[in-house]
Specification:
binds S-adenosylmethionine, 7-stranded mixed β-sheet, Helicase, Ruva Protein, domain 3, alpha/beta
Length: 292
């Protein structure tokens, strides 16, 4: 049995033999630490009862650990140059399928129906390409799939935004958009030195699981999302300032804003970062009632 793919010496050997050159534009930073990979699989609690979707297998460092623990693994890789490499490195793992493609364009429900048997829980586990962390998370959260969990590595600063609570500098529309539907927890952090090439940032493993019910009930999700995003456009300014920029500055609009804010007991002088998700939901509903 050869060494793990992720040992520095085997990774270097694979990359050299295939003449592989990293593409920075695809977020290619490969993990070269088997202990960290084993900890990621443990954080995701992957077992033979699970089918796993991996985004961006690279040369298969994480895929190998997933294949050993899971029932089936389906890995989506955008870079066609990695397909022959993966065919070689994953040959000992027949429960693994690699599909070439862009995860953001992938129809995950169809892929799952095609590749998995429907008898196993479905988990997502990935060391994400950092340039599209947020779009990928939104794609996964919005997909019509009941993932048992999503366990992904991302830039530490993004993990801080995902888990942020009100009254902190990291709290914003991303925290609210994700926490409304998901429970989010940081499992552990990883130094940039665990990757080749080393990225400019440290990383964190985050686990997301869908809540049985959203953190706050929202009648009109699109209006809620617009309110939240608009409220944080100028973070340092007051809610009033952001709301008048969003809805308009006419006397009629201002009167409606005043009515809505009073109805939910939010002072116009507050800042968006002081409001909980429940308060945003209540405000969204009050604005709707006031005719905005
Ligand atoms: N899983 C490997 C590891 O842990 O060493 C590689 C992780 S690397 C951070 C991100 C991987 O995602 C790269 O292999 C890259 O080519 C791939 N990737 C980038 N954009 C992608 C996309 N839109 N869809 C699928 N894979 C993508």
């Amino acid at each position: 049995m050869p060494d793990h793919i992720a040992t520095p010496s085997r990774t270097n050997d694979i990359l050299r033999r295939h003449g592989f050159r990293f593409k920075k534009s695809l977020g290619q930073n490969f993990l070269t630490n088997p202990k960290i990979l084993s900890n990621i699989v443990a954080a995701a609690a992957v077992s033979a009862a699970d089918d796993v979707i991996e985004i961006g297998p690279g040369i298969g460092a994480l895929t190998e650990f997933l294949a050993t623990a899971a029932h089936q693994v389906l890995a989506l890789e955008i870079d066609p140059r990695l397909l022959p490499v993966l065919a070689e490195t994953l040959a000992p793992y027949p429960n693994t399928t690699v599909v070439e493609g862009d995860v953001l364009k992938a129809d995950l429900a169809t892929l799952i129906a095609t590749h998995f048997d429907g008898q196993h829980a479905i988990k997502v586990v990935a060391n994400l390409p950092y340039y599209i962390t947020t779009p990928i998370l939104m794609h996964l959260i919005d997909a019509p799939i009941d993932f048992a969990s999503i366990t992904v590595m991302m830039q530490k600063e993004v993990a801080a935004r995902l888990t942020a609570q009100p009254n902190s500098k990291d709290y914003g529309s991303l925290s609210i958009g994700v926490q409304q539907h998901m429970d989010v927890a940081v499992a552990f952090t990883v130094s940039r030195t665990a990757f080749v090439p080393a990225p400019n940032v440290d990383s964190a493993i985050v686990t997301l699981t869908r809540r049985a019910t959203p953190r706050a009930a929202v009648v009109d999700q699109a209006a809620f999302d617009r309110l939240v995003r608009g409220s944080f456009v100028a973070r340092r300014k007051t809610l009033w300032n952001n709301l008048t920029s969003l809805y308009g500055k006419s006397d009629d609009t201002k009167a409606k804003l005043t009515t809505a804010l009073a109805a939910v007991e939010i002072a116009p002088s507050q800042r968006a970062e002081q409001l909980s998700i429940a308060q945003f939901a209540a405000l969204s509903e009050a604005l709707r009632t006031a005719g905005l």
